Amino acid sequence: MQKTSNVAELQDICRKVRRHIIEMIGAAKSGHPGGSLSAVEIVTTLFYDIMRHDPANITWPERDRFILSKGHAAPVLYSVMAECGYTPIETLNTLRSIGSIYQGHPDRRFIPAMEASTGSLGVGLSVGLGMAEAARLDNSPTRVFVVLGDGEIQEGQIWEAAMYGAFHHVDNIVAIVDYNRLQLDGFVKDIMEVEPLPDKWRSFGWHVIEADGHSIPNLQAGFAEAAATKGKPSVLLAHTTKGKGVSFMENNPKFHGVAPTTEEVALALKEIG
Amino acid sequence: MRKYELKLGTATREAWGKALVELGRENPNVVVCDADLAKSTFTHLFQKEFPGRFFSCGIAESNMVSIGAGLAASGKIAFVASFAAFVINKGFEQLRVNVAYPNVNLKVVGTHAGISLGEDGPSQMSAEDLGLACSLVGFTVLSPSDEVSMFALVKAAAAHVGPVFIRAGRTKVPVIYGPDQKFEIGKSVQLTDGNDVTIISHGLMVAESLRAAETLAGEGISARVIDMHTLKPLDREAISKAAAETGAIAVVEEHFVKSGLGVLVAQVVAETNPCPMEFHGVNDCYAESGTPEQVLEKYHMNAAAVVETARRVFKRKK
Hints:
The complex is a heterodimer of chains A (273) and B (318). Chain A has helices spanning 7-28, 33-37, 40-50, 74-84, 124-137, 156-167, 188-191, 197-203, 216-228, 262-272; strands at 65-68, 144-149, 173-179, 182-183, 186-187, 207-212, 234-239. With 273 residues, chain A is an alpha/beta fold. In chain A, strands 1-2-3-7-6 form a five-stranded parallel β-sheet, with helices on both faces. In chain A, strands 4-5 form a two-stranded antiparallel ribbon. In chain A, helix 1 crosses helix 3 and helix 1 (7-28) packs antiparallel against helix 10. The mean pLDDT of chain A is 98. Chain B is α/β, with parallel strands linked by helices and 318 residues long. Helices cover 40% and strands 20% of the residues of chain B. Chain B has 13 helices and 14 strands. Chain B has a seven-stranded mixed β-sheet with strand order 3-2-4-5-7-6-12. A five-stranded mixed β-sheet of chain B has the order 9-11-10-13-14, sandwiched between helices. In chain B, helix 9 (205-218) packs across helix 13. Chain B is globular and about 60 Å long. The two termini of chain B are 24 Å apart. The model of chain B has no long low-confidence stretch (mean pLDDT 98). Classes of the chains: A alpha/beta (273), B alpha/beta (318). At the A-B interface, helix 5 and helix 6 of A face helix 4 and helix 6 of B.
């Protein structure tokens, strides 16, 4: 794979990733398009620009670790990893079908290059902390990136992890909240409000960074700030739009977990370009 | 029949703590997480000697299990410990998705298991931990009976690649084994040769079963006592052999009878050499506070009660 910091190049990869997401969920006839599309810039920027990793050496001990704690957004991870060369692009459309490596939620048994099997919400940040602690013990430059959903942080274990990270000064971990303000049953504010989010993380002892989660320069600056922050963990609150890039999916709770029809797939691909 | 002195030794939780320190000395890759019970689980011995490899997680068992999983996934030989009731019940989802499902090399130790912790009462007791642990795919599940077997099996667990649950008790228990006894995961130990009835047990009920066997010998009933320290993978060969050779089996354990070793043994017996069986354990109830001795006696966890169960199954032989 060719890593890049060039914004136009990264945007072009994001466009391809969005196409994969729509096509694969359309082919599977089930899946979670909304939360996959909202995290496209986050995951693409991490894999193509920020993280130290090597698709040709997946057991490199000093690699950075990525955990998609909001595992239902698996299509965005599969698409980016396939583009990086970890897995075949040709079979992305086997998503969710029997025997496919592209399982409904990330499953390490099928793709060992993924650092964690996820899907049960609320546990990924803690696993990431364990990896970050192991790296510190080994004096390894490894850094750990964990993508959380804003609905996901309603899970209590997230805040157990938040306490742990600050108390133990785990500064080689970055939590990214895909802050799209929607969850399965509707708007976060109507199901279980998580605001005031910056204050919550700050009071738990984390360095809080806010960014437009669809602006690559914004994300790049945010990750640079996190890397420069020592002595405490950082959380990047990425303000995003659920369903980003497809007009009829944007900010529409319906597309949390409903696949587009054949006609909707065609329409969406036309919009994405 | 071979006689056992059964002198009172240390609690298995203490033996586990000592084994952990030795592991720490042998291998710098061994790390430990605890959830504010280090003094009770005996991980404080490791903490004192290796503070840099000890991770205090506070009173947050779910988080501890997941952090342990992350450490193990990064190549550490990670142990997490708490009371069995808390690490298994509060950490169960994390044991399922962060440990069992991706088959992470985490070692989980639950102390104060069973009802023999006594005074603290049912909220701290655990009579379901082994059933839950056995339901986790790929887990090895151990319930050692004394300090010697605990020490050896903790070391065997560390050497084994894959997730392990180890059950330890709070109270001091008799020493069964000599210092040279060898233990192997998945291989039970036959403690007495008997052909009239078999008593299969684990944990602190093994010593009580040996005492029961002595009483039974006085009545002319020769009992084969087996220490089934590994519940998973189960020693099927020893079970089917005992069923064929003795024709009657009592399973004796400090655990719910509906989800413990008994049901696992019954499955093997049914599949190999069907014979009468009795199940001796904690029935469908939560125990209560009292001294360990009082609680064990009230809930039939002593040699006298085991004798009755063994007699009952012996009489059912055709």
